[in-house]
Design brief:
Elements (H helix, E strand, L loop, with lengths): L8 E6 L3 H12 L4 E7 L2 H9 L5 E5 L1 E2 L2 E2 H10 L6 E5 L6 H7 L4 E4 L5 H63 L6 H31 L6 E5 H15 L3 E5 L6 E5 H17 L6 E8 L3 E8 L33 H11 L3 E7 L3 E9 L5
Parallel strand pairs: 1-2, 1-3, 3-6, 6-7, 9-11
Antiparallel strand pairs: 4-5, 8-10, 11-12, 12-14, 13-14
Bound molecules: adenosine-5'-diphosphate.
């Protein structure tokens, strides 16, 4: 990138009107931050010079023959230029200022209200602001790369852990069985705890691998199917296994969605499993589907522990678990809600969530409704 001197800048004016150039030159000569001013009198040369990163800052007129300064901005930004560009607008330029900023201009100047002080300030500000923006972009690229490395490492570790964990699980099973008459009580407890810990690790590995599958959308094929039937099936499975009072409310007609059925089943079951996990046995769980012309809303409402407001922000982040005293002994990986969020977003849906500590929670999601044909 071009080095920017502390006080004065090499400026390129891109303007197809020579009179404008002369006016600008006279004005910029009175502006102390200008080291030199060069002139490009057409759109193509302007683009070429910006892409060569030949100057510290660029002043671009809005009217450039058949093109506009906004076209130029878009063209150079598309080609990766991060140069500070200031658009020169005229009296009839209502709205252009915002378009310019959106297209990546550092600032804009009304040509009819120029004076050396304003120009000096805008130039300094534009160069400084662009430099900060570039630093932020570089930092973001670095963070994204690191994030990718971290995700890859977790994924590789999860893959590689699967086999040794299965072996450990198998041998602990064998030891418990083969030595069942010879083990002292404390030895049996050690082995059982080991067994339990290995199972926890297996669940974590499973969740990590599920996340990977979801991110790659490789959990099955897209199909049109009855979402109500899927929910009913999962609901009945959970109802049989848990003591909570569970109710189900479904619309009369089938509710068709387009998506990957096994993934949506995973999302539904994660929410059901959380509701039973974080609700005392005598609590209530209500499962509901409602639909209008555009959306389907699926919710699981429980009368469980609820989540304090200050712990709600990060619930859908991977590995996050809200630390509340009621759930201290409940095990989990903190990946379930993140899996649900990813699945829902992959189906162009949105998460629905509300919770009150001590009263209960409602978790769910909205999916686009499709016509039943
Ligand atoms: P896990 O249940 O494995 O910890 P999740 O990602 O499914 O992970 O959930 C993240 C956290 O959100 C849980 O640890 C828990 O604190 C909170 N949570 C999720 N569902 C509920 C619920 N229905 N009621 C209360 N807290 C919940």
């Amino acid at each position: 990138m071009t080095k920017v001197s502390a006080q004065s800048y090499r400026v390129l004016l891109i303007d197809d009107d020579e009179d404008d150039y002369i006016l600008a030159r006279d004005l910029l000569n009175q502006t102390p931050v200008i080291q030199s001013l060069e002139w490009a009198d057409n759109y193509e040369d302007g683009i070429k010079l910006v892409l060569q990163d030949s100057h510290d800052v660029y002043l671009v007129d809005y009217y450039l023959g058949a093109e506009t300064g906004i076209d130029l901005l878009k063209a150079v930004r598309e080609k990766g230029s991060r140069a500070p560009i200031i658009l020169l607008t005229g009296r009839d330029s209502e709205g252009i200022d915002l378009d310019a900023l959106e297209a990546g201009a550092a600032d804009y100047l009304d040509k009819n209200a120029l004076n050396p002080t304003i120009v000096g300030r805008v130039l300094r500000y534009a160069v400084h602001q662009q430099r900060t923006r570039n630093q932020l972009e570089d930092a973001l690229t670095k963070v994204t790369q690191l994030e990718q490395i971290k995700t890859d490492m977790i994924r590789i570790a999860a893959h590689d852990l699967r086999t040794p964990l299965t072996v450990m699980h198998g041998y602990i099973d064998m030891l418990l069985e083969d030595l069942k008459d010879d083990l002292k009580d404390n030895q049996r407890t050690y082995l059982e705890q080991l067994h339990h810990s290995v199972e926890r690790m297996q669940r974590m590995v499973q969740d990590i691998l599920s996340l990977e599958r979801i991110l790659e959308m490789s959990g099955g094929h897209n199909n049109q199917f009855d979402f109500s039937a899927l929910v009913k099936n999962s609901f009945e499975h959970y109802q049989k296994q848990h003591p909570h009072t569970m109710t189900l409310h479904l619309p009369k007609d089938p509710v068709m969605v387009y998506g990957i059925e096994p993934l949506l089943r995973e999302a539904i079951e994660n929410l059901l499993s959380n509701a039973v996990k974080y609700t005392p046995k005598d609590g209530k769980i209500g499962v509901d589907i409602s639909a209008d012309a555009d959306f389907i809303l699926f919710t699981v409402k429980d009368t469980g522990f609820g989540i304090p407001k200050d712990l709600q922000d990060r619930l859908f982040h991977p590995f996050y678990r809200a630390k509340i005293k009621e759930a201290r002994k409940i095990e989990g990986t903190g990946l379930g809600l993140n899996l649900v969020k990813n699945i829902v977003e992959r189906h162009n849906g949105n998460i629905h969530f509300e919770s009150e500590y001590g009263k209960g929670s409602t978790f769910g999601f909205m999916l686009p409704n499709i016509e039943d044909d």
